[in-house]
Amino acid sequence: MGAVLAILSSQAFNPIEVGEQKDDQEKKTILRKSENKANLPPLSLLPQEVAIKILSNLTATELCLAGCVISPWSDMTEDDILWFNLVKSEWKYAKYVQDRILEQSWQSFKKLYLIMDEAQLIFSVNPLKGIEYLQDHRILSEDASDIALYLHTTEKLRKEELCNYLLQHRPDVLEDYVKLEDYSNQSVLPNVLRNFLTKFPAKQCNLDKEQLGLLLIKFSLRYSECNPQAGLSQDIVYNICCSLMLLGYDFTHPLIKNKMSKREFIRNTREVTPGVSNDYLGHMYDNIYLIGPVVR
Fold first, then answer.
1. Do residues 187 and 223 share a domain?
2. Domains: count for the chain
3. For residue range 95-133, what is the model confidence (pLDDT) as tens digits?
4. Entry pTM
């Protein structure tokens, strides 16, 4: 896109008219670049397959602008394949349900893009209406696992609204959402928990203790399912997670002067984690000490 914009900009204005604030050296540089661009063929003369290749690298906004600036390209910028590829790049969900989407009679895939973009904007204001908007247009089904897939694969959703939807309105969707997490062969439990909780930032989402506890329960079950070789039951993972959260709180709270030692952490945690070695718990302590708390 940079090369295209460079050519377009060179045709849009005369570099000599840049303004008096440019010194002579800057003007010479601009003139030299302009002369090099002048040797390039007009974009409108490019073969169609080359033009399509260029257009396939543009964002939705850039694609619309290209159609306005270069009139011979206006029809190509409406190409269904280009817009459907944009849909799949913006919303990974579309890749998983591609067959279902293709079965529907869309006026154009540009319209599909605009619907999904509008739904994302609506979700940022009212999550329930955003999901309902997608269901009304037969993009989403009412199945909890289908909604969970959309939420899990859409990266640009606001975290506050995502937390609100999953924790307050659709705990059944939360169940399927966590099942989409893959913790296989991830042995450093604090890192995995920390990454999981970045999707539900406590301060940003204003989580209460009950909601945070529910997230830990779901996480503990999923982690133990993905790592059977670790020999950690859901209860043990949950207890370790709670200990890690308390340790992080202990380290960061300004009013706590005497910070918990590794020996104290191991002794306290060992009581609720039978079968877990002291070395393993020691590594948990070191992780929090070096990297920081798991809850942000």
1. yes
2. 2
3. 999 988 888 888 889 999 999 999 999 999 999 999 999
4. 0.79
